[in-house]
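Recap quiz, item 2
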Amino acid sequence: MALAVDWQRDDYSRVPYWLYHDEELYAQEMERIFRGPVWNYLCLEAEIPQPGDFRTTWVGDTPVVVSRAKDGTIHAFVNRCAHRGAMIVRKTHGNAPDHVCIYHRWCYSGDGTLVGIPFRKGLKGEGGMPADFDMKAASPRKLRIANCCGVIFGTFAETCETVEDYLGAFGMGMVKRFFHKPIKILGYSRQLIAGNWKLYAENLRDTYHASLLHEFFVTYGVDRATQKGGVKMDARHRHNMNHAYTATDTQEEARAAYAGQQGVALDRMQLKDSKLLQHVPEFADRMNLAAPAFFPNGLLIQINHSLGTRQIRPKGVGAHEVFQTLFGYADDTPEMTRHRLISANLVGPAGLVSMEDGEAIEIVQKATKREGAAATVIEMGGRGPVKDLAHRVTETPIRGFWSYWAELMGVEAPGGIR
Amino acid sequence: MSAVPPAAPLAAFDVPREVRDAVGDLLAAYGLLIDEDKLEDWVALFDDACDYKVVTRENVEQGLPNVLIWCDNKDMLSDRVHSYRHVNEYNLHWDRHVIGPPRFLGQQDGAWRFEASYALFQTDLEGASRLFSVGRYRMAASVASGAARLRSVEVVADTGLVPSLLATPI
């Protein structure tokens, strides 16, 4: 089915609601976006340190295994048996010299190549597979992977930009910033949000909402629009980073700026125990908030001393999982590890500055279902070309996301901005 | 299966009747105070030097320390409730806890250690209910004068895939 989208504007400041609800469109996204010329975030190298280690992950709604082979090389392949289509690896993680499908015991090497078929030559000259069956050709589809400073990306595309070009100078710079020394995994959190996956991708590009929806940010001075900060994007505007610098505004400035904003209160109260918010800048750039989001499914996030990655896992047109991996550095002191865990109160499904996203997305999904031709308004921060900004009263990067989404889906607005 | 195997449960006769009754009352109050939206009273069930943590079974099985919530004293717990009351936005709902009987594990530092299974249902304001979380509590409580006070609560949620978000305590 050929798609046609009435964008109303060439700058993607209007997005019709049916794009969050249409099953056919969703199926095409799985092909054109997640299997398109993009680098998907898969996992971290630190999760599979030893030969034989594996992790299961998702690219769009395709199950994928990331595995370290005996020779130490990292591979990713579709988690579906070449024979009858069963999921080969059922655990979330583990260590195995090879992977055997339970159904008929077809066996795959660590790089996902089909290497064994029971009774392939039959028994006593009877039965078995045809002699010309090509095991290598029948192997599950493999992804090309790229290891950027310990962050594993994967692509289904035969040809596409290098990951360095894809992430751009700012994206690569942020990967190097977060992963400038060895990390240790602290654990995972998962959240199932009853909303289309793009609502989460947009949320990550909407710096306007952060200090309004997440009132904890403002009330306790973790992050306010009055702090020095802004949004940065790659040249194609598909990736975005919301960022802010610690202690660059005063309580007076913030009080004046938020005065009279409905539902947002400063100074309403103090934490009885404020250690949660203790922050000593640990990066040379002194940012206390950095959230580079990589099209289509990845995010790195620092909020004070909480560090993590997130992966968006679409679960049908009306739901997605947010899979979060928290980490610290291998040389963290026990006190710092404890502080990072205390800081985990800020993020994740119960996060004091993140829980609201789940609710905001679900109420958009609920209220937009019936009026597909109506459109969302994306004008905060201005219309027209998409540009980096040295402030955060903006949702401009959402328009950048839609511009690239439209390009991959083959539905760019006539004369649409890029 | 579990990375941190529970200690062998004590024989029934090792736990005084008074302790069993007090812990039973404590568990009943624990669930119902949350379900009745009396969260400040729920906080009052804890000792001042207390610890409340929500972790997931997925992390525990792997020996990973990540938390969904961790309040390592009563002030932090109180801050959580204040934030929930005044700052956070969340899905509007009613909670309903169903808590199984405690299995006693022993005594440590003057507190009784025990475990109990829970199921937590959520009902939205139009009356639609769903299973929100199942798992177990690993608790420690001191018992004096027939009343138990919570020293520590570790919620080990089997339901690591949190539906929507986690705002009210488990």
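Chain B is about 25% helix and 40% strand.
Residues 16-157 of chain B form a domain with the Nuclear Transport Factor 2; Chain: A, fold (CATH 3.10.450.50).
End of item.
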